[in-house]
Write a structure and sequence with these properties.
It contains one helix and five strands. By secondary structure, it is mainly beta. The chain has one domain: HSP40/DNAj peptide-binding domain (Sandwich). Strand 4 and strand 5 form a beta hairpin. The longest helix has 5 residues. 9% of the residues are buried.
């Protein structure tokens, strides 16, 4: 993983995601919740590494949202 990987949003199918920064020099693991209402609905940004997780609009409701 290089620095440009952090700029690419990660598509996920669950509203709850886990981020540890990846690699040996990551950060403490955190669980993040993607909100479905409000100005940032459908995505969440990790407060440690600024990686963006985006909820796949085609995800089925049974996959966690």
């Amino acid at each position: 993983m290089d620095a440009s990987d952090l700029d690419r949003p990660i598509s996920v199918t669950d509203k709850r995601v886990y981020c540890d920064g990846g690699g040996a020099l990551g950060h403490p693991g955190v669980y993040l919740n993607i909100e479905t209402h409000g100005p940032n609905s459908g995505q969440v940004v990790c407060p440690y590494c600024s990686r963006t997780f985006v909820l796949d609009p085609n995800a089925r409701p049974g996959t966690g949202h």
